[in-house]
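#lab-general

N.A. 3:47 PM
ok so I finally got the sequence cleaned up, no stray characters, all 312 residues accounted for. can someone with queue access submit it? mine expired

B.Y. 3:52 PM
send it over

N.A. 3:53 PM
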Amino acid sequence: MERKHEKYERLIARCKELVPTTAAVAHPCDESSLRGAVEAAELGILKPILVGPRAKIEAAAEQAKLDISGYELVDAPHSVAAAETAVQLVREGRAELLMKGSLHTDELMGAVVKSGTGLRTSRRISHCFIMDVPSLDRPIFVTDAAINIFPSMEDKMHIIQNAIDLARSLGIVEPKVAILSAMETINPKVPSTIEAGALCKMADRGQITGGILDGPLALDNAIDLDAAKIKKIDSPVAGRADILVVPDLEAGNMLAKSLSFMADADAAGIVLGARVPIILTSRADSVLTRLASCAVAALVAHARKISGAAAV
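B.Y. 4:20 PM
back already:
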């Protein structure tokens, strides 16, 4: 068993070797969101551009005793305007990341998906948790547990590709993808098992690339080798999965929270499929989890810059 937080600490350490990534931080008007951006900057992960009402940001900084004098501050009158301005900074090439401040997620994502002025690509936008589970020797990616409520099979193709690209950006050369269901056999009465089989065949035909897919797999035989052996599942993924693709948002949310509250896991996360990675932090996140989310997004942006990719 690895020491708790070690996986996140390695990600943050990798960022310190890179040039800080410019991030447009939308409406950082409370201590939690402002501190997250400042601490990431102090560690050399991000170079924040603070976007929002100048007076509110400065008041939050003064109350929290944070020095923001070294960061660019772009005035915007309210949260919706801050989201739109932050997105515009990305479109202009002035920022390589987007980071949520103290506004509602819907306000930020509304600006992201807005026709004509947003950050949409041909990919479906999806969320991925990068979970540090102390009992496992590797980070576990859970997707999608935050954005797509009942994703279609086509949506899942994009969700899987987004997660594979993310894992590869973090140094996993050929991520192992388990498409989860309640069982490991295809059952016509359980639609998620049929979709899992079809998605695996899509990977065989080159419609999903960069990873090794298997499914349907139940959670136990996806992550535990002994469970896979008991079920006599002969697969390079079973028992070794890096990425867990859930049937729908409800299942993903329950899985991520179960790992957090019953397995003492941390859950960093970012949004993928837009022109740039998007950092969605929560007030409930620990300092390390916030920093890990920033580090993941920065590493993805760095990988995109090297490859010249248009979207993650």
